[in-house]
Specification:
alpha+beta; globular; six-stranded antiparallel sheet; 21 strands; about 25% helix; 13 helices
Length: about 475
Amino acid sequence: MKKIKTITLLSLLIIGLLLTNTNSFAENELDNIEVLTISVNSMYNKGNLDTNKEKHKKLGEIELNRVLSKEDYIKDVNNFKSFYIHEQGYLGGYTKEQLNSDIDKLLQNPTGNTVGDLNLQLSKIISNMNDGHTTAMSFLGTEQFPFIIKIIGDEFYIINTTEKYKDLLYSKIVSIEGAKSSEILKIVCKYISAENETGKKNILHYGYMLYTDLLKKENIIKGDKVHLQILQNGKIVDKIVDTIKTDNIGIYKSYYDNESYNQIMYDTSELKWDAYTNWGKEQFTENKPFYFYKSNRNLVIKYNYSYDMNKDNVLKDMITKMQNEIQAKDIDNIILDIRYNGGGMDYHTKQLEFAIMQYQLLNPKINIKVLTGEEIYSAGIRMIDSVKRNLENVQMIGTNTAGASNYNMSAGNIVYLGKSRLFIYTSGEMRRYDYNFKDVIHSSNLNKGDGSTWYPDMFIENQIQDYAIGNDRVMNYALRNNWY
């Protein structure tokens, strides 16, 4: 399985809808569903069912190019209006009146809209929530670029390509069809709901800057051949690239014979990830949920996902194995690398945090170095807050986080729009942290800044040259330097 499939398996790309009112599906079941809404937690709730006996059947597809009838478009927009407002736990700076008004504007032009049009229209409305748990399907498109973009600063760099365009690898994109990266960023960010600019840029990698649909909607791109200006060896060169047509995304049911459990999900494994050739250098970590290793007098913990994926990846087992390394009393630093932790379960992060706390109590001189990055979100953010509160000698190294530092959201419910077959994510609760009370737990030094993101003590960002040679300057700094 390719890295991107695994990374997004449970956090973004696969949604489960638990249907408890029937044991069977009609052949045209998707056509019979007008709208569904249910908690995202249902995807984990399989009780004592044997997952080896789970069955799957394809029910239909998400066809972004399909033109919706006037009636179907109106139906889905109204369902979005009714169910989204009801399910969304937090509107950010938006008001319900503004939300209603913007949705009603869509109904003024109900003809000629495709499923993809509706997806982008809803995405632009949702972006006003400033909540990364709330999103339309930003990771789908009808055509892909033959490369993957990495945003460093405000500049676009090519970090992965198809075989045909390997000569462009690690180049800087000066412009796309004459539009500079800074101009494009201003446009595409208006379609992304996130707590801060860091979060928006992170979503773009495998979202709207992987596909051409949004750039076509904004008239930046016209056809399936795209003109680029590329900076290579200090010179700007012109390049024409061909886009890649994508397949429709399948919608499946999973079920068990003679059981009431039924689930609807969409499967992004059908996307053409295999077209790209440079997997392995986009992230400085192995494709595992979590693991650890020892480097000199450093214990490095790679904590990429806040959940156990299967019987071979159990956090409790890893913690037990780490104890031998800690008890050897030759560890000066624990390096906790959570740069790729987009969230999961809070209780899972607490297990690891509690283990590290125990280690530090046994050896108060142990330093904790937390590696931060633009992919940290949700439960990963809550872990930073807790580690900074409860552990001593903590240094944060890396870049700003996608999640905010003064508040945190959680995954809520999902709205399935039956006519377009689109899925909409909502968020449930918001936790806001107030540090204005008496400082009894050294909370005045929590790197919270203005509250929009966590700020590292030492800002270090890997550059495109580092990706090219596999050099992780963030980790190298943590291994090389003793802060205390």
